[in-house]
Each structure stands twice: as C-alpha cells, then as structure tokens.
Amino acid sequence: MTEDKTKPIIEAVNLCKYFKTHKGMLHAVEDVSFKLQPGKTLGVVGESGCGKSTLGRTILRLQPATSGEVLYEGENILKFNRKEMHNVQQNMQMIFQDPYSSLDPRMSIRALIMEPIEVLGARKKMSASEEKDRVTEIMEMCGLPKYYNNLYPHELDGGMRQRVGLARAMILDPKFIVCDEPVSALDVSIQAQILNLLLDLQEQHELSYMFITHDLAVVKYISDMIMVMYMGQVVEMAESSELFAHPLHPYTRALLNSIPTIDLSRRNRERITIKGEVSSPINPAPGCRFAPRCPYATEACKQNQCLKEVGPGHFAACTEGSL
Asked: Second label for 128, Cα 20 to 30 Å away, from 19, 84, 112, 317?
C-alpha cells in the first residue's frame, strides 16, 4: 500500500502546554498549529526559553498537553491509552541536545542502541541473531565502527555520542523524529557531518523531522518549512527560501538581521535592535507577546494574536515589519 504523501504525518491543532508555578500558570506553548508532510523537515527557531523543546516533548507525549490536539497519521494521540501510545511510540522518536546526559554511562554502546527494542517490546518479534544483525546494521548506517560495541559513552567524543543517540532513535525504524538541537554542542565541522547524515537518512528512509534549533544557518540548510516562535507563540511560518527572502514579522526580521555575514555588500546594513523588556510568560496578557517590544505594535496587536495566510503557505501574525 502506497503512503499518501499529501496527508500530514504530524499535525498540531491549537496545542497548549502550561506549567503551574507558585505565581500562576506559565504559558510555555500557546495555541500552536502546524502540519508536517511525510519526508519533510519542519525547522523550529527562536531564542532560548521560547518553548521550542517543550513543544517537541509535548508532541511526543513525554509531557502531557494542557489542551489542543496532536494528530499522528490523522489520529489524535493525546486521547490514546498507554497500550495504544506504546505502539505509536515506535514510530515517533527523539534525539536530545546533550548526548552525554541522555546516555546511561553504565551501559555499553551496544546495550544503549538495543535499549529501545527492550523498552518498546519489539524484542519479542526478534531473535538474538536478528537483534545482533539489526544493531550492526544501524551502527554502520550511523557511521559507528563495529569496535564501538563494547565502549562506553565517556570514551567517545561529542560527535560520536550524538551518532549513538541517532542510532537509538533509528533502531525501531521510525517515521517521525524530533531533533532537539542535536548539533548545538558540537564543533562546526562535526555539525556538518551530523546534518549531512540526517539528510542522508531522511532520503533513504523517508523520515520526517521536527528540527529544533536557535541557529538560523543550520535551520536554513536542513528545513523545508520554518516556524518562528516567540515566548510560546508562533509568529511566522513559511517555506525556508520564502522566509529568508521575505520575512514579514518584525521579530523574524530581527532574527535574520542578527546572522553574521561575510558579504561585504551587506556589512553596512542597518542593524535592527530589539528594545524593551521581555514580558513574563506567567499569566501573560492577551495578544502578541512581542507587542511590548515592537515598534509597529498597535492596540489590535495587544488584544489579539493569530496567524494569517499572507501568501501561498506563508503565515504571519504581523506584516508591518515586512521588507
């Protein structure tokens, strides 16, 4: 049966995640909606604390959503019981930002890669020899030499540890992977190797990625669509080339303007400086949370915030800062 490429593999509908604090409710993710097609990459960018990682964890149900829906192949997994979710989790995996803290230092590389098979029950369907062959296959696929079998995480460098994290995510042959800043802690040359490996695996296995990062150069390289977040809200979403060519929201423009460049013709470009204090995400006022710092803000911005389609596949909460 051929997979329907027009049907989203993951869809979020008005997804919210709040945390209770002694001062009130912290709105970490606010009314986020998007669709991700099979074999595509959605880049999620924004400054630290904007809710990117919380969004990824909520989609995978590593933490419960406050409201909204997460549709995996058309089914709302937020309503699934433990057994139903157990089956879906084999197709939805995550690569964590810090491979050293996400790998058990007491387990060998082979045991770490095999662990998802044990935890998610796939082991019952595989013999010992099939498990061994599968681990060998995945290690080769992720660029891990065979002699790494009996090594431990502290004996590997950061790039190789991240390859182990990728192998753990790939061992169950998933369809969707959340990549939570997987290259932010690596040297630039190692970053390129991991990104190219992710792209190769995506092409070979038709993987769909949610790629979370604060590095705009990285997200431009790997993403088909880019979603810009500010304090839990989505302020703009478009195809990668469109977003970089025609940024519409003032916050998006400020982010792109901050990218270092070696282009001498752009060296004297006007710097966009974001002024004002960051408002609190605890019991926030309605409207766009960037409004207190935005030079284009009106009363309407302070009362309401919603994405509007301003072009084919291009959504923005504001177009006043457009080029």
From this structure: 84
**Angstrom distances, CA of residue 187 to CA of 74, 139, 276, 285, 290:** 39, 22, 33, 40, 32
The encoded tokens of residue 140 equal 């080769």
Distance between CA atoms of residues 71 and 76, nearest Å: 4
pLDDT in tens, 251-278: 998 888 877 666 656 555 666 677 777 7
Structure tokens at 183: 């290259």
**Predicted TM-score of the model (pTM):** 0.90
- Can you tell me which residue has the tokens 């029950």? 121
Q: What's the gap between Cα 164 and its chain centre?
A: 19
Tell me which DSSP letter residue 314 carries: E
The residues facing 13 across adjacent strands are 69
302 touches 247 (CB < 8 A): no
Cα–Cα dist 58/184, whole Å: 21
Residue type, 198: L
Three-state DSSP at 227 gives strand
Per DSSP, the three-state class of 115 is helix
d(CA 146, CA 139): 7
Calpha distance 70→41 (Å, rounded): 17
- Asked if 137 contacts 170 with a C-beta cutoff of 8 angstroms, the reply is no
- pLDDT, tens digit (0-9, with 9 covering 90-100), for 60-86: 999 999 999 999 999 999 999 988 888
Q: State the Cα–Cα distance between residues 276 and 281, nearest whole angstrom.
A: 15
**Which tens digit of pLDDT belongs to each residue from 151-199?**
999 999 888 999 999 999 999 899 999 999 988 878 888 889 999 999 9
Close Cβ partners of 148 (under 8 Å, ≥ 6 residues apart): 109, 139, 156, 160, 164
